[in-house]
Amino acid sequence: MEILKIDNVSLIYQTNEAETQALQNVNLSIEDGEFVAIIGPSGCGKTTILTLISGLMKPTSGAIYLDGKLIDKPVGDIGYMLQRDHLFAWRTILSNALLGPELQKKKTPETIEYVNGLIEKYGLGEFKKAYPRQLSGGMRQRAALIRTLAYRPKILLLDEPFSALDYQTRLSVCDDVHRIIKSEKKTAVLVTHDISEAISLADRIVVLSQRPATVKKVYTPNIEGTPLKRREDKSFSRWFDVIYKDVST
Ligand SMILES: Nc1ncnc2c1ncn2[C@@H]1O[C@H](COP(=O)(O)OP(=O)(O)OP(=O)(O)O)[C@@H](O)[C@H]1O
Ligand SMILES: [Mg+2]
After folding, report:
1. Per-residue pLDDT, 186
2. From the CA of 245, how far away is ligand 1's center (Å)?
3. Quick one: 130 and 32 in the same domain?
4. CA of residue 45 to ligand 2 center, whole Å
């Protein structure tokens, strides 16, 4: 079932000095439970697409639909995970994770139980009362993902969420994030310029052109397993070559 539809979306940024066209006729349909990676050259308009999906900005033309409903204002059903974890230093991990429900005035016993459950299930049980500085970078990203899930979003938008981590940590956090998103049956849209990351995580890979971005190619590598396993698959480097050519031309 289709959960998100980007229908012929264009976006022009207007500033006093200049007009920048970021997106041109972007079309994309995403199925419920799908993990889609959007990949493209630096500055092509990737973050712009996520901002439009979140409803924080409106397209210049075209429309985006979530569950068939036009997105025309900030949407509560969407969770955003960014490059930096943005955990609050003065709050414990549990209280960071409960921030969303607290802001939405939905901190019910049921939500608290749900969030506690996520923390336990994803290996941070011992750190509930710890502060972010006591956690490793990878654990902090996991905590940030749990905080995003606490909003019970229909879709997760991930904007280069691993780029601040060192390479080894990145590999294991990719595995964690993939496992959590799949087992919670969430739909995810990941923006990255790391081709290997896209192939190892996503069910489908959308390659954007240079700015103004438009959809250049869509690939479904069909490699099974966890991100680490996929990296070992014999077709991995073939997919890498194909996508590398698209991104660099
Ligand atoms: N608020 C804004 N006002 C004006 N121009 C903007 C604004 N935000 C982004 N742009 C421009 O729009 C284009 C696309 O930006 P965007 O941030 O979406 O790219 P990106 O693909 O996410 O880049 P990166 O890979 O560096 O994260 C860029 O040329 C950028 O300078
Ligand atoms: Mg960006």
Report:
1. 93
2. 23
3. no
4. 7
